[in-house]
Specification:
It is a single chain. This protein has 502 residues and is of the alpha/beta class. The chain has 18 helices and 13 strands. The protein has a five-stranded mixed beta sheet.
Length: 502
């Protein structure tokens, strides 16, 4: 497979060096993070041979950031992790052997280094419903699994069961280190409590980030070069109105039967599911906030929210260039078959489905609400991994804290860069500006905390845009009003109890 060159452009991800890497297999998993720039305590020192920090590549600087963990041996002790079934989840934690695949081997070598350094064994099992297992483990009182990986949107299950420990009480957990996802963790912290944590060990928090994939070959047929599209983004002109007018002329009756059907080509299309959940954040809005006392507030309903659903309804149902697809992830197949110019998808598609794509493509951010909006925003699919500590883990918390921190640090240094290059740049995405677009998208992730309780006390509000679009119901204000009583009661009672706000 052809090699690719890393071109990492923003300090937020600390990768600017050039290196060549082979491709990952479709079954390898993915990882991510988003943090602030490293603090002074994380700044690597000079190498002493005339090499200063400025003379080192950012990748080399990553390797020099200390994890500040003790020099300790655990006599072969096992760290047992339970996570969701599926290769992309299990392989965040564990792979059985070296295969020659760069992503697989990066995970294997990471674990091998940690196992040798601390004399431990890292094990992982998949489960169809791990969210319910912390309660089972807590009731048993024995740490059959020390750490449980969860879908982010299912976090409420073990939290409501009061079956998880507070990560901030965990020895050696250092949330200020760059391998911890500060954006996600800060937003999920309530009253000094963080029940589920995200770090670079959760590769899915990167590869499940949403963006707009763009077929550059098809765009060119409509007069839009890659440079044009990048220019619109950089100049702040990439808005929902601009996209709406752009795709209107991109419908092509490929079979010549005079009606829009599945054999035709469209400007934009997707199955109205998870990608629809991004629009609200993309337009610069967040569902949850904090009041002056640090309590969680719900900030969803406003005049702008009404305008958002009205505009999106027209975009989805009154634009000839838009195609509503019939099944989840259909947009990946349609884009692969060059039947969509633009498609909202997760970065994961670049390293899975689109490995077989013959056309050149790139990734652009979701459009802004208008040109006055300062930044581009997105979020990650609500199925990215977060990690919880079942309450019996308290009895071995020092050991767990050391190995989890080591796994996160080593992922930041040696696994994440491999996945980043292969999964995000993509096999056929060869233009140099693609990496810059990816950085722009990653910097705008919001990780809205509401998704952790979206199916519970927050009453599906994170999915309300999606639900209205599917039902072709523009009356979002009335739908929200029907939820307010249950929302208020849940926040005041169940949520307050979970986070000791009473």
């Amino acid at each position: 497979m052809k090699n690719r060159i890393i071109s990492i452009l923003l300090a937020i991800l600390m990768l600017a060096s050039v290196m060549t890497l082979g491709a990952c297999s479709e079954n390898a998993s993915d990882g991510s993070k988003e943090t602030e720039s490293t603090t002074a305590t994380n700044t690597p020192a000079s190498t002493g041979e005339g090499d200063t920090e400025q003379e080192l590549s950012d990748l080399e600087q990553r390797m020099l950031i200390p994890d500040d963990l003790p020099d300790v041996k655990y006599d072969g002790k096992e760290l047992r992790v339970l996570t969701n079934n599926g290769n992309q989840y299990i392989e965040e934690i564990y792979v059985e052997e070296l295969t020659g695949d760069n992503c697989n081997d990066a995970v294997y070598n990471r674990n091998d280094r940690i196992e040798v350094r601390f004399d431990v064994k890292i094990l992982c099992e998949g489960h169809d419903s791990p969210a319910g297992q912390p309660k089972v483990i807590a009731q048993a009182g024995t740490p059959d699994y020390h750490i449980v990986g969860l879908y982010d949107y299912q976090s409420y299950t073990p939290i409501n069961a009061q079956a998880l420990l507070n990560w901030y009480d965990t020895p050696h957990f250092n949330p200020e280190k760059p391998w911890h996802n500060k954006l996600a963790n800060d937003d999920a912290t309530v009253n000094g409590i963080l029940y589920t944590v995200c770090s670079d060990l959760a590769i899915t928090s990167m590869t499940y980030t949403h963006c707009v994939f763009t077929n550059l070959d098809l765009a060119q047929t409509f007069g839009f070069s890659a440079e044009d599209l990048y220019g619109f983004v950089k100049e702040g002109k990439w808005t929902i109105d601009f996209l709406d007018s752009t795709i209107a002329s991109m419908y092509v009756d490929k079979n010549g039967n005079g009606k829009a059907d599945n054999d035709d080509q469209y400007g934009f299309g997707y199955y109205i599911c998870n990608p629809a959940d991004v629009w609200y954040n993309a337009f610069g809005e967040k569902i949850t906030g904090r009041d002056d006392s640090g309590n969680v507030t719900i900030n969803f309903m406003s005049d702008k929210t009404v305008s958002i659903i009205e505009k999106l309804m027209k975009f989805h149902y009154e634009n000839e260039g838009f195609k509503s697809l019939s099944a989840q992830y259909d947009e990946q197949t349609w884009f692969l078959n060059q039947k969509l110019v633009f498609a909202p998808m997760r970065f994961y598609a670049a390293f899975a489905t689109l490995r077989d794509m013959d056309a050149s493509y790139t990734m652009l951010p979701y459009p802004k609400w208008d040109e006055a909006q300062e930044h581009y925003y997105t979020n990650a699919d609500d199925k990215f991994t977060v990690f919880g500590l079942p309450t019996p883990s308290y009895n071995e918390i020092d050991f767990i804290g050391v190995i989890y921190e080591a796994l996160s640090a080593e992922s930041y240094k040696t696994v994440y860069p491999v996945y980043y290059d292969v999964a995000l740049k993509g096999r056929y995405s060869t233009d140099a500006t693609t990496a810059e677009m990816v950085e722009l998208i990653m910097a705008g992730r919001l990780f809205d905390f509401s998704f952790q309780f979206g199916e519970d006390v927050i009453q599906r509000i994170p999915y309300l845009i999606r639900d209205c679009l599917n039902d072709q119901d523009v009356n979002i204000a009335s739908r929200y009003k029907k939820l307010e009583k249950a929302l208020k009661k849940g926040m005041e009672k169940k949520f307050a109890k979970n986070y000791k706000l009473e």
